[in-house]
Amino acid sequence: MNKRIIAFAAALAALVSCSSDRNSVLKVYNWSDYIDESVIPEFEQWYKEHTGEDITVIYQTFDVNETMLSKIEKGHEDYDVVCPSDYIIERMLNEDLLLPLDFASIPDSLNYISCNTSPYIRGMFSAINPRIDANDYSVAYMWGTTGLIYNPDFVTDEEASTWDVIRNPKFKGQVLIKDAPRDVYGPVLIYLKQKELAEGSTTLQDLMWDSSDESIAAVEQYLREVKEGVLGWEADFGKDQMTKGRGVISLNWSGDAVWAIEEAAQVGVNLSYVVPEEGSTVWFDGWVIPRYACNHKAATWFIDFMCRPDIAIRNMDVTGYVSANGAREVLDSQIDPELDPIDLSYFFEGADSVRVDPVLYPDKAVIDRCALEHDWGEDTEKLLAMWSRVKGDNASSMTYIILVAAVVLIAAAYFVTTASKRRRKHHRR
Fold first, then answer.
1. What's the CA angle centered on 47, arms 46 and 49, to 5 degrees?
2. pLDDT tens per residue, range 101-147
3. Which of 427 and 28 is assigned the larger pLDDT?
4. What DSSP assignment string belongs to 293-335?
5. What was the pLDDT predicted at 428?
6. Which H/E stretch holds residue 139?
C-alpha cells in the first residue's frame, strides 16, 4: 500500500481516537531545559483570554531527537507540538509525519509569526527539504552554529582559527569532541575539502549531502588521528570540563559556548568561541504539529505565542540559545554598547552595524561560510557505524579513567549545576 495512504489512514484513526476532553489539553514535547517554564501558565491564561476556552498544557521533555521521533513514528503518540532539529524535520516531512500549519484562525493583531520571522530563517527553512517547503509545516524556535570553545590562555586565536587545531599534538589530551556524529562530520569534511571548495568543484551545501563511502572513509581516517589527543567524547559534560580548565579545546555548539564562557568567567577561567575560517554548519530547531496530534487549534496558538517577542526574549535568557525571532525588540534586548559592532543585516533589517555578542549572533561574514546539515535517510546508518568505529577502537585506559572521573565530578555537582542559568542538553545524531 502507498506510504501516503498508510499515513493518512493512521492519522484518521488517531483523530477518531482523540476524546472530546483533549480539546482542553495541549501536549507539548520539547528538549530538556529549552524554555522558560513560567511562560507555560501564561500561555494557558492568554489562550483563555483570546479564545474563551480553557487549556491545560502537559509538558514533557526529551534529550535525543530519535527518542521523540520513535514515539511519534512507531508509537503514534498524540503530542500536539514537538520541537525537532532541522534534519528530523526533513525526515518527518519525508515520512508524512507532520500536519501543515494554518494560522488563519488567529487574528492579525495576535499573529506574531508573519511579522517576526527573519528572512534568513525563512530562507534556511525553505532549504531543509528540497521537495517540501518546511515553512509550511514548521516555525523556527532556536538556532546556532557549530564551532570551537577554546581557552585563549593556552590556545592562540590563530591556532583556533582552523579545524585542524583538534589534531594539533600540542593539545594532546586536552581536546573534547561533542558526541554528535553529524555535527562533527560536517566541519571535518569541510576542512578536508578545502581544495575542492577553492576550485569551485563543490560547495559547502553540496558537502552536506555527501554520504559517499570515499568521504566517510576520509573523515574516519582524520578522526582516528584526532582521537590520539581526545580527552573525551561527550554528550553534555564538555562545557563543564572547559569551565574547570580540564580541557583547552571543545568542538561544541554556540549555545553551550555562551553558557561555558559565562560560567568560566565566574571562576576566573578565560574562554572564547570561534567558527573556524574553513567553514562550518548552522543548525535549527523548530515547532511542528505531528501527524497524530489531537488539538491542532491549541497547538497553532501555542506556536504563535512562542513567537511573541517578549516570550522569545525570556526563552533566550533562560536557555542561552538564540531565538529565530527577527523582531526588532529581540535585537534591542541583546544590544551591549561595550561590544564591537557586527553585521547582522542578514537577520535583522537595517542591522549592518550593531553591538551584540557575536557568539549568539554570528557576523554575516561567518554565516556566509556556514551550511545547513541534511538528513541522509538510509545512509545515516553508515555515519553511525563510522562514528562507533572511531570511538570504540583502541580506547586507552587513561581515556576511561578520565571519563569515569568526569562522571563522578558531574554527579557531585549536579544539584548546583542544574540550578545554573543557560544549561541545556541537546543530543543530535
1. 65
2. 999 889 999 999 989 999 999 999 999 999 999 999 999 999 999 99
3. 28
4. -S-HHHHHHHHHHHTSHHHHHHHHHHH-SEE-B--HHHHHHT-
5. 56
6. strand 138-150
pLDDT tens sequence across 86-108: 999 999 999 999 999 999 889 99
Measured CA to CA, the distance from residue 120 to residue 16 in angstroms comes to 39
d(CA 246, CA 405): 11
Nearest to 284 by CA among 363, 190, 367: 367
Q: CB of 230 within 8 A of CB of 175?
A: yes
pLDDT, one tens digit per residue, over 259-276 is 899 999 999 999 999 999
Report residue 297's pLDDT band, with 50, 70 and 90 as the boundaries: very high
Which residue did the predictor score with more confidence, 312 or 409?
312
- CA 119-124-126 angle, to 5 degrees, is 95
Question: How confident is the model over 238-255, as pLDDT tens digits?
Answer: 888 999 999 999 999 998
Name the nearest CA neighbour of 222 among 178, 159, 163, 151. Answer: 163
**Nearest-CA neighbor of 143 among 380, 315, 353, 365?**
315
Between CA 38 and CA 49 the distance in angstroms is 17
Helix ranges (H only) for 228-295 are 238-243, 254-266
- The answer to whether residues 143 and 121 touch, using CB atoms and an 8 Å cutoff, is yes
What domains lie within the chain, and their CATH numbers?
3-136+285-329 (3.40.190.10), 146-279+375-417 (3.40.190.10)
Helix (H) or strand (E) holding 188: helix 181-192
- List C-alpha distances in Å: 90 to 80, 121, 192, 258, 377: 18, 15, 26, 28, 10
Could you give the CA distance from residue 276 to residue 53 in angstroms, rounded to a whole number?
A: 50
Give the H/E segment covering residue 249: strand 249-253
Query: Do 168 and 156 meet the contact criterion of CB atoms below 8 Å apart?
Result: no
Quote the CA–CA distance of 160 and 151 in Å, as a whole number. Answer: 9
351-362 pLDDT tens trace: 999 999 999 999
